[in-house]
Amino acid sequence: MNFIDNYQIIVVGGGHSGTEAAYASAKLGMSTLLLTISLDSIGLMPCNPSIGGPAKSHLVFEIDALGGLMGKIADRTSIQKKILNRSKGPAVYALRAQINRFLYSREIIKELENLPNLDIVQGEAKDILTNEKGEIIGISLATGLNYGAKSIILATGTYLSSKVIIGDFVKDSGPNELSNSKYLASSLHNLGIMTHPFKTGTPPRIHMDSLNIEDMEVQPGDSKGYTFGFEEIPGSLPQVDCYLTHTSDKTKKIIEDNIDKSPLYSGIITGVGPRYCPSIEDKVIRFPEKISHHLFIEPEGHDVKEVYLQGFSTSLPGDVQIQMVQSIKGLEAAKIMKLGYAIEYEVINATELKLTLESKKIPNLYFAGQINGTSGYEEAAAQGLIAGINAVQKLKGKDPVILGRSDGYIGVLIDDLVTKGTKEPYRMFTSRAEYRLLLRQSNADRRLTKLGYNIGLISNDRYSTFQKKIENIDIEVERLRNLTVDSTNEAVKDLIGRSNSSTLEQNLKAAALIKRPEMNYLDIARIYPPEQNISERESEEVELLIKYEGYIKKQIDQVENFSKGEKKMIPDWLEDYTVIKGLTREATEKLNEVKPLSIGQASRISGITPADIQVLLIYMEQIKRQETDNVQG
Amino acid sequence: MFKNYTIANIITPLIECGIGIIRISGNEAFVIIDKMFKAYSSSYIKKESHKVYLGTIHNENGDKLDEVLVLLLKGPNSFTGEDTVEIHCHGNPFILQEAMKVILKNGARKSEAGEFTRQAFLNGKLDLTQSEAILDTITANNQKALTLSLNQLEGSLKNKIGALKEDLISIIAYLEATIDFPDDEIEESYTKDVINSRINTLLDEINKLLASYNTGKIIKEGIMTVMIGRPNVGKSSLLNSLLNEDRAIITHLPGTTRDAIEEQINIGDLVLNIVDTAGFRETEDIIEKIGIKKTYEYINIAQLIIFLIDATQGLTREDQLMLEHLRKLDKKYIIVMNKMDLLDKEEFKSSSDTIFISAKNRIGLDELKNVIKELFIKDEIEDYCISNLRYYESLVKAKSALDMFQESLESQIVPADLLAIDLKDAYIALAAITGDDFTEDLLDNIFSKFCIGK
């Protein structure tokens, strides 16, 4: 085979998953090739122009804590920032940034172009090349060029054999008029990796000047300086507003009258779409009692006129879309720049993967992002990072990097995908994380930065700043636990009075005072200032660790309990579950498919009952006893 | 799955009666029966499942043991899910034991208690609640216990828990939807007051189930009853009178409560496990002292104390001391004045804790029974009352999580994400009874109730 070049790792796809994978790989010293269908569309945001939100923000913080790209680039290119769920508790505070999507893509390209060890090539991957032993040797392009590789990471997003659908118009295409990936799916099929269609969609884009924003509710940002990134560089772009408006009874009627033209209902679309991201026609049909649905106008940049109509995803025919859009309050004269569309694309079954995202069938072949059945930039980026790291670790002969469900949302995401698979495009929710009080965005660094440092993605400088931060927080929490508040102190009395708190009958510890709902850390720190300087983010974490101490402790206990199952490993020799007699056929099939690492993981496979787990445990115990008997006998 | 997992046992009581049945279950069951059974019909060679064959069984020397019916059941269409053979012999303990010897020699292992059910459970023929109910059925010693376990088997408990879970998850779904979809229009279907009243209802239901545990346990296991009194107040005659009422269902269980003799008596739906004790009195006799010490020990472990007093003698000093002792304890007791036949009966009226009877003449026994029933079964027993410790513990967990939730909700400061932790704990505790996936249940609920999405 004639290779143009030989790489250690080739990443296929330049979206949010592929770029993180390529970045990690090159950063960790591997000679890396990033292969993309369109060089200009690296880091493209083909759907909503925002990053973050509940659970997704947590993913971005974790990516950053491990040394990934997304957080800092989102900070740099944000045009509005907002903290969501402020009133709903420390576990679910979430940052969301509106992004100038053009600049985002540009900044990602800049980062990658300037990275040593990384080559970027425009071209469509055609075939995964293997030798007679079935080992990965490289990849061939549709143009006929071949590149050699030891490992390949596939991050094909929504491009794999994709088609765009608007009404009865169907076109083989990737998102945003980009070429799709025509050949790669059959290469996968030849390797024994099957695919099936998923579906998603996007709303129309409108020209800002054709809107009447007077009729809408302004949605400003509130946290310009708040960053995803640990390094807290907020970016310097002008900030913009979003707008809230509503569909009308007319919109509803237009949709109902034209529903027969929807490809969803006419049967053109067969792929499974996400329930949490339904098209507007889906919402109208499924919730007929709702006359009006709200939607948001989101700018695609501070210096562009194109705006995104969040909540109005549709694949109805173009003329119907125009009528629908113009029936919305404030959009009566709206000019559509791009029609909304549905897109169908091929995904694999993620239960084919190990927790490292490596294929179980083909060693050194990794899958990351939407090809694994997820949706969302953040979910994709998180997987790209983990696949990239693990591909490197394996080539370097190091231990795999696997995050557990109690380590981070990334752990929850990958464990869910690999253990349960997904029947619809998988999106992260905070409710998927059992231990979410411990998985706050505010402590992502404490959870993961040491790991990132050990892997080699976190610089020495950053690591020592991080250590200083953690130390600051811990010392301050300890100080407040021991500090006695003097009940006769005038400043204290004054504060208690102002806060409508109950009078102090006697001295008490500062921590106890902070635990009162009406009190906060900063007020107390003003009276009893700490020796060291405490930053705003540090003080947030200090307050939270004190106020929610009881709940945090409770979750730590739950994690300990949960870890028992995770630590009970299923031995390597147990490869074929059909030898275990008591299992139901369904359980045997599922266990053979997933090949769980631990009893804990096995118990999360859908369809595995407590009875199956018991059988499995009894079997493992039997074999263990037989072995001991043999040794003794 | 086990090397030797063909198990066998006699599954009918070892007493002289019409029929005795031996069950063999496991991969060797058909091989084992072949070695000892000669069928009259040649069609036996076909080994058709769910067919009965008449023939004879023999010991290893070829001597005929009995003429029997053999029922063949091929797995998985049998109770245990394994190949199963049932041999219907004549109900002679000797024959049954001889046949068992042959079966064990031929390679089966004698089953342990409940092992057939365990096999069925392991083979996926029963879920946890069902298999637990079957074990209850086997050990059921009265009609109510039997109905109870049969109901559990059909899932009435499962349905009840299911309804509680459904209520709970719709509240969680609301809280979680507001967290995960802050931009969406989540109708404020659950104000604080609504949530509070829904949780109160849930707690009521759980409390009812928990309360039913004691009833359920009492129904299943019987009431530990101790009969006390001075010597010769008529303890033995009362016991005999109660026993004579219903001879058929008395069992002697020697040794189960150390050296005492325990009698089982059915009173309607209840079973009393009665321990007769040595009479107490002030004494210097060492042996008697030991007996009296025992009496006090029994009182300590009893659930019901029947305190017999000789009505013709009134309260003696010893009686009074005992009464004071009883009153200090948090125990259910009944004072029974015996020998009322020797008194002018008209002037004595029984009250809720004092009953006048004549054990000898069987007067007042019904009244005594009614008082016992009232003491233990306050309400009509619900069909789904729980009798299983595992369920009980799960419900206790759910209850304490909900209590915690209400406390947090009341305090006004605990944010939604933390409130949800307690609700989720409660849900998971309930789901442990039936076995369900929390996240899937939750997301299904959110997406079916709220119109969500970008």
Structure in words:
The complex is a heterodimer of chains A (633) and B (454). Chain A is an alpha+beta fold. Helix content of chain A is 37%, strand content 18%. Chain A contains 21 helices and 22 strands. In chain A, strands 1, 2, 6, 7, 8, 9 and 20 form a seven-stranded mixed β-sheet that branches. The model of chain A has no long low-confidence stretch (mean pLDDT 93). Chain B is flat and about 80 Å long. In chain B, a hairpin with a 5-residue loop joins strand 4 and strand 5 (64-73). In chain B, the strands form two sheets. Chain B has a seven-stranded mixed β-sheet, covered by helices on one side. A six-stranded mixed β-sheet of chain B has the order 9-10-8-11-12-13, with helices on both faces. Residues 246-260 of chain B have low confidence and may be disordered. Chain B is 47% helix and 18% strand. Chain B starts with 6 loop residues before the first strand and ends in a 5-residue tail after the last helix. Chain B is an alpha/beta fold. Chain B contains 14 helices and 13 strands. Chain B has helices spanning 29-36, 93-105, 115-122, 128-139, 143-154, 156-180, 192-221, 235-245, 286-301, 317-328, 365-376, 389-411, 416-434, 438-449; strands at 7-10, 17-25, 37-39, 51-58, 64-73, 84-91, 109-110, 223-229, 262-267, 270-276, 304-310, 332-338, 354-356. Chains A and B meet through helix 8, helix 18 and helix 21 of A and helix 6, helix 13 and helix 14 of B.
Primary descriptors:
heterodimer; A: 633 residues; alpha+beta; 18% strand; B: six-stranded mixed β-sheet; flat
